Amino acid sequence: GHGSGPAPGHGTDPPAPQRVLFPPTFSVSEIKNKQRRHFMFLRWKQQQRKEKLALKKKRRKEREALGDKAPPKAIPKTIENQRVYDETTVDPNDEEVAFDEATDEFAPYFNRQTVPKILITTSDRPRGRTVRFCEQLATVIPNSHVYYRRGLALKRIIPQCIARDFTDLMVINEDRKIPNGLVLSHLPDGPTAHFRMSSVRLRKEIKRKGKEPTAHVPEVILNNFTTRLGHSIGRMFAALFPHDPQFIGRQVATFHNQRDYIFFRFHRYIFKSEKKVGIQELGPRFTLKLRSLQKGTFDSKFGEYEWIHKRREMDTNRRKFHL
């Protein structure tokens, strides 16, 4: 390009060994002209990219030359693997945790004494999108029933649910027609979790989606629920689904926790051959963030809270996670 360095000297100067594009103290932000500044910035980015690639190539060559003696590849630092240690992280062999879980509110489900039966309801007088979301959620969770709420208080719904053997109550809240919250209450004795819900994608908004889900019981995958609180939440999600997945349906519901955001996805496997397997997303998908966990069933006034997310106090470090 033009003007990418000093003008060459007149005859007497030795050729410069390597032209430096930018003097070391030069900063692109000093350029007053916006277009020129933008152009130079792009050029600088390009140079950075070139240098990075060259370094990568050089390293690869060195590794190949060393063969088996090459040092192991460096593991990049990520927010996840630099996570601040949480003293409530559960050790799989912890007897105290095992005892607590054998006697907690989900024990009857895990001991197969109860069969999940879920009531999915909405905030008062739901609008189109929330209605469709509830319908699609009901195709993901077996034995779930959708009830559209009109003016009936949750306090009144819960005793009716318990009388009819519902094991869980899910309430989808909305704001300006967009689903934005989930209250999950385990019946009859709680606990109740309140989540913020975001990034809801309905089936028709998912690209390359599979055919409608079948009525088979899906497998459930719970990833990264490592602390005591995480365990409680994981058990809560597990208890929504019947115990024995029907593998013939090849459907799997995933709750993946990453940095305290819980990503929900619903997929179907496609076996292309004995070795190759593909997955198709069926939808819906959404993201949850835990707001609070409360003992007992839904009680906004007098509920006893086990955990409330207080951002100012708790999130003092970007690498501190609670689940």
Question: What can you tell me about this protein's structure?
Answer:
This protein folds into two domains: 28-56; 102-315, Brix domain (Rossmann fold, 3-Layer(aba) Sandwich), CATH 3.40.50.10480. The protein is 26% helix and 24% strand. The mean pLDDT is 88. With 323 residues, the chain is α+β, with helices and mostly antiparallel strands. It has seven helices and eleven strands. The two termini are 54 Å apart. Strands 1, 2, 3, 4, 5, 6, 7, 8, 9, 10 and 11 form an eleven-stranded mixed β-sheet that branches. The chain has helices at residues 34-66, 95-103, 107-110, 128-140, 154-163, 228-238, 311-314; strands at residues 118-122, 144-147, 168-175, 178-186, 192-201, 219-223, 251-258, 261-271, 277-281, 285-294, 305-308. Pfam families: Brix (PF04427). It comes from Daphoenositta chrysoptera. It is found in: Nucleus, Nucleolus. InterPro entries: Brix, IMP4/RPF1. Residues 62-71 have a biased composition (Basic and acidic residues).
Write the SSE topology.
Elements: H1 34-66, H2 95-103, H3 107-110, E1 118-122, H4 128-140, E2 144-147, H5 154-163, E3 168-175, E4 178-186, E5 192-201, E6 219-223, H6 228-238, E7 251-258, E8 261-271, E9 277-281, E10 285-294, E11 305-308, H7 311-314
Parallel strand pairs: 1-2, 1-3, 6-7
Antiparallel strand pairs: 3-4, 4-5, 5-10, 7-8, 8-9, 8-10, 10-11
